[in-house]
Every structure is written in structure tokens, then in C-alpha cells.
Amino acid sequence: SDIGAQKNRVVAEEEWLQKWETHNIGFHKEQGHPLLQKYLSILLSGRSRLRIFFPLCGKAVDMKWLADMGHHVVGVEISEQALKEFFVEHSLPYSEEPVPEIPGAKKLQSTSGNISLYCCSIYDLSSSIVGKFDGFWDRGALVAVNPCDRQRYASLMITLMEENSSYLLVTASYDPNKHKGPPFYVPESEIKSLFG
């Protein structure tokens, strides 16, 4: 598969942090994502009170929407600013605690306990720290991960899946020779090889 000039592109964590600091966050949606609303029944598969994972969550409004339905939401994001803005913008009281297994990491948790957001690199997480999940909403993570890290990312996601997990993934289709990304172009053939 030809992903053009993007193959070797690397976006450093500092670049993502700077996007949040300068509010250069065109990827953030102020409203709930229409594709999540459209395919929610596939994600839930008739189940209630699921554990749903938001990789590279930012301050996605969909986290509160699903938590309000009775699901337990867990997210991970490198930007502490994004996580704090999420709680402030939704007027949700929260607490902060260190994550003993990950030096420098924090867990921000809603007082109600149904939203837990980890501030760290996604690659520092494991199922022994965050558990396993019934559902995944990958709206902008796979397409934000550096192309050289996709296999590592997909392998991690697979270790976090419960047996009957549902994985909703949003990608973008375009000519990768005309845009350097992110979002990166991930061809369908690569998605199949990553996730089976």
C-alpha cells in the first residue's frame, strides 16, 4: 500500500502539547460525533454498563455522553490541559492521583467515578493498569499515531480488548502525496493487517 511521503513522518509529543497550548485543535469537535451516534448500536451490541476506551481522547464531548448513559469511560491523552478542560467545560468535579506504575503520569477521575482519564503516553498503558474494554471509540487515534508506530499501537489495543469487544474506527481517505498529515492516511488493507 502506498502511503506516500507520510511513511517516515514523525510528530513529536511536544508538537501535540503545543497544539493544545495554542488552541490549534481543529481536530476537536464541540458537538458529539455523528458517526458515533449513527453506529452506537454496533458499539453497544445491546449491552449496558460497558467499559469504553477512548485512545488519545483529548477533551471529546462523547466521553460525557456515554458516561451519562451509564457506561464507564476511560481515556488517555498526553495533554493534561485537554483533560482538565474536559472536566471544567462539563462542570464535572474530579480528583487527581498519580499512577504508581507510570512515573509522572496522573489519573484524573470524575467524582462520580465513571470517567477516568490518564495523562501519559498511550504506550505506557497496559491492561494491568487500565483493565480491558468492551468497546473502543477510535475517532482520531490511529490516524494521529505516527505511521512507524501503527503496529505497536494496534498490538496494544488488541491487548486491551475483552473477548466480545466492539471497535469503532474513523479514518480519512485522501491522496497521501498531497497532505503530510496528521490525520494520516491509513489504507483499508493496512487496517485489516493491523486488526485482522
Automatic annotation (TrEMBL):
Protein name per its UniProtKB record: thiopurine S-methyltransferase
Hydrolase as UniProt keyword: no
Entry's localization field: Cytoplasm
Main subcellular location of this protein, as a coarse class: cytoplasm
Entry keywords, A to Z: Cytoplasm, Methyltransferase, S-adenosyl-L-methionine, Transferase
Matching PROSITE patterns: SAM_MT_TPMT
InterPro entries registered for this protein in UniProt: SAM-dependent_MTases_sf, Thiopurine_S-MeTrfase, TPMT
Superkingdom of the source species: Eukaryota
Binding site for S-adenosyl-L-methionine: 16-27, 56, 77, 121-122, 139
Biological process annotations from GO: methylation
Keyword Cell membrane attached: no
Native species: Eolophus roseicapilla
Signal peptide: none
Family, as annotated: Belongs to the class I-like SAM-binding methyltransferase superfamily. TPMT family.
Enzyme class, UniProt record, top EC level: transferase
Gene Ontology MF term list: thiopurine S-methyltransferase activity
Lineage: Eukaryota, Metazoa, Chordata, Craniata, Vertebrata
An example Gene Ontology CC term for this record: cytoplasm
Gene it is expressed from: Tpmt
Enzymatic reactions: S-adenosyl-L-methionine + a thiopurine = S-adenosyl-L-homocysteine + a thiopurine S-methylether
EC number: 2.1.1.67
